[in-house]
Write a structure and sequence with these properties.
This protein is mainly alpha-helical. It has one domain (20-168). It contains three helices and three strands. The chain has a three-stranded antiparallel sheet. Strand 1 and strand 2 form a beta hairpin.
């Protein structure tokens, strides 16, 4: 036999080591991709939780503005800036510290829900995208009524986009007068 045709001692292990290193790099890449996906989804959930908190702040502020309207005629704010400085009184009233930015879009522009008598009765995110959380905020906050139909509840649990997450103040309905 020629000396070039015989394998050298220990050279058979080199192919195995190279193949093992290749599999290790592939496994590390897959692990990093999975970690990135999990981190991205966790960050999205944080943004959604922040959106829910900010939306509730707007809803609460609009409710306070409405309830504290001077006189018997209750009014909604005409602009979101009215929640920062309510000058309907002698002393300045503040219901929000600032107009929060939408955490999903990162911009301070909100969709406005118009009140029937004029003004703003709620806000919603203008961001495109499908939420990770599929429960609508109203469905999350309100306990299920014992006589509620499962089909009606299931419909309120699906939100196809952030635009469906509406934070609306609805004044309590006065009980009917007794005769």
């Amino acid at each position: 036999m020629a000396s070039g045709s015989r394998p050298r001692p220990g050279s058979a292990g080199r192919g195995f080591t190279y193949l093992s290193a290749l599999f290790l790099v592939a496994a590390l890449g897959a692990g990093l991709a999975l970690t990135g996906e999990i981190w991205s989804q966790a960050r999205q959930r944080e943004k959604e939780a922040e959106l829910l908190w900010i939306g509730e702040q707007f809803k609460r502020a609009i409710g306070l503005y409405y309830q504290r309207s001077p006189g018997t005629l209750k009014r909604y704010p005409e602009r979101l800036e009215d929640l920062l400085e309510d000058r309907r009184y002698l002393s300045l009233q503040r219901y929000l510290r600032r107009i929060y930015a939408d955490p999903i879009s990162g911009k301070p522009d909100w969709g406005l829900v118009a009140a029937p008598d004029g003004g703003i009765m709620g806000v919603y995110s203008t961001a495109e995208g499908k939420p990770v959380r599929t429960l609508a905020p109203a469905a999350m906050a309100a306990p299920a009524a014992p006589d509620a139909k499962p089909a009606a509840l299931a419909a309120s649990y699906r939100a196809a986009s952030y635009r469906e997450w509406r934070f609306v103040y609805e004044p309590p309905v006065a009980p009917a007068a007794r005769r």
